Amino acid sequence: LPTDFVVHQVLPFQSVSAEPFTYASDLYIALAQPGSSSCAVLKWDYVERKLRDFDHIPAHSAVHCKPIVAQDQLYVVVAQLFGGSYIYRWDTAVDKFIKIQDIDDQKTRKPNDIEAFQIEGDWYFVIADSSKAGSTSLYRLNQNGFYSHQALHPWHRDTDVEYVENEGKPRLIISSSSQAPVIYQWSRAQKQFTLQGEVGEMLDVQMVKHFRVKRDQFLCLSRYIGDSKVVRWEGQRFVELQTLPSRGSMVMQPFAVERRQYLALGSDFSFTHVYLWEEEKQKFAKFQELSVQAPRAFRYVPAADVRLLLAPSFKANTLVYRHVVVDLSL
């Protein structure tokens, strides 16, 4: 049965990140909207099968809004290019987001990406900092809030950070403008990340994303100028599998819909290309073109019986695609 991505909903605003989360059994999406000076939180309407406005968090130059649901509390980390970054908490007593914490602007000067994860029961988030004078910072949640835990990879203008668990070992892969992506591995003894090595010799990687097929682990490395690459983890190193032309790409996102593994490769100058993984050939094949202006993220969101792909746009409306199975027997 062939599949297709069709436009399901047009959201009338520009955005640069999309983060789904479930809170109190409902599905929400947090979107950073630098043009509207806010983090928009949308709620999925299971009856109408559409996203609806829920709330807005003020954010003058938001580049990422990261929701974290920990210990039955909802937090949103708001990363801004200017004016500092903050952490909000949903207050059930007044039904609104309350600012609870500032993030040290001496450590986080020009944030670019946020990842959140759990290690041994503790919640952490890490902010990639793209300032020449900044460093990517790791924060840990305790009873009173999130506190600075470790500074990583200073002075390298980091563009993206990806959390990967491989062979039972938590790792961070950090890409930057000035060197090949670096790998940090969690030390259980020190309760910190330690530098482990680099990913190949690929410079100026814009974004790092991972996916898994059966037991194999893969990385997608996107570049704005030059070709993007797909590599496979083999023991202690990554082996290059495929090169994809990607002029003007700010985002390369793998995602799985049931048993199908896709890859969305955006571009500021042409169509977004969606690829489908071919297991026998161990590579992606072109599948479909999507018309998204200046995409900055792709986020797969299963919403009950509807399979959605969110495509935030920096220059036009944010698009919500639906994954459909086409029955050709009719």
Give an account of the 3D structure.
This protein is mostly beta strands and 330 residues long. The protein has a domain at 17-103. Helix content is 0%, strand content 64%. The protein has no helices and 28 strands. Strands 1-28-27-26 form a 4-stranded antiparallel sheet, with no helix packed on it. It is globular, with a radius of gyration of 19 Å. The N and C termini lie close together (12 Å).
Labels describing this entry:
single chain; 330 residues; mainly beta; four-stranded antiparallel beta sheet; EPTP; repeat
Low-confidence stretches: none
How widely separated are the two ends? 12 Å
* Radius of gyration from CA coordinates: 19 Å
The SSE order reads EEEEEEEEEEEEEEEEEEEEEEEEEEEE
Write the layout of secondary structure elements.
Elements: E1 3-11, E2 17-23, E3 26-33, E4 38-45, E5 50-58, E6 62-70, E7 73-80, E8 85-91, E9 96-103, E10 111-119, E11 122-129, E12 136-142, E13 145-152, E14 158-166, E15 169-176, E16 182-187, E17 192-198, E18 207-213, E19 216-222, E20 227-234, E21 237-245, E22 252-257, E23 260-265, E24 272-278, E25 283-290, E26 299-303, E27 306-311, E28 318-325
Brief rundown of the structure:
Helices cover 0% and strands 64% of the residues. The protein contains no helices and 28 strands.
